[in-house]
Automatic annotation (TrEMBL):
Residues 80-216 form the GST C-terminal domain. This is Glutathione S-transferase. It comes from Pseudoteredinibacter isoporae. Residues 1-76 form the GST N-terminal domain. The keyword Transferase applies.
Length: 218
């Protein structure tokens, strides 16, 4: 398998973490979002990540994660239908109500573009609802769904990379301080051996990412 993307991408890192946690063999192929025809044949929107398998390519982080999880044990998605749905619910809340609203401010945070006042005004209320919903859905003990790490732990960890970064840099806000159980969970996940490997690779890739972003500075 080949995983396309770049090591500073939080969505790429969610898939990478799962692949590493499952001990699967894969090749990393550095690729930034692109409208190049060759890459569009792999990801029809030109985004990252994308996974190329012997049967063909696929895109969208949660879809890739479900496919990867199906390949071998141990399983990170619950097998019982209700529990699997709850796992996906946690992932979706983190994506739609924390990561994606926060991402609207990335031009300011990552590139240094002028503030988008609409994004600034609209993102935080959605993020506040997202963090509150996440706290309601999860009672870490120690993982989000109990005593075993699931795909929810992996996905949410990397969704919150953007959420926490934007909260701090744009709003001078540390949302996890308001939710001690989630804060303790986040610290535990940060200390996980796979998380540390992924984080090290992400830090090493930051300079290249900044050079890539420079072309979009207004």
């Amino acid at each position: 398998m080949k995983l396309y993307g770049f090591s500073a991408s939080n969505y790429y890192n969610a898939v990478k973490h799962l692949l590493l946690a499952k001990g699967l063999d894969f090749e990393e192929v550095k690729e930034y979002p692109s409208q190049n025809e060759d890459y569009l044949s792999i990801h029809p929107l030109g985004k990252v990540p994308a996974l190329v398998t012997d049967q063909g390519p696929m895109s969208e982080t949660d879809i890739i994660m479900e496919y990867v999880d199906s390949l071998s044990d141990p399983k990170f998605f619950p097998t019982e239908a209700f529990e699997k749905a709850k796992c996906r619910e946690i992932m979706k809340v983190a994506e739609l109500y924390i990561e994606l609203p926060a991402r609207r401010n990335n031009g300011e945070v990552l590139i240094g573009n002028p503030r988008c006042e609409t994004a600034f005004r609209e993102a935080r209320p959605l993020m506040e609802k997202g963090f509150k919903a996440l706290d309601t859905l999860c009672q870490p003990s120690p993982y989000l769904m109990g005593d075993k790490m699931t795909a929810a732990d992996i996905f949410v960890r990397y969704a919150l990379v953007v959420g926490n970064m934007v909260a701090a840099k744009v709003y001078d806000w540390k949302p996890l301080d308001e939710y001690p159980a989630l804060k303790a969970w986040s610290k535990m996940m940060r200390e996980d051996a796979v998380s540390q490997k992924v984080d090290q690779d992400s830090q090493a890739a930051m300079q290249d990412l900044m050079e890539y972003f420079a072309q979009f500075k207004k």
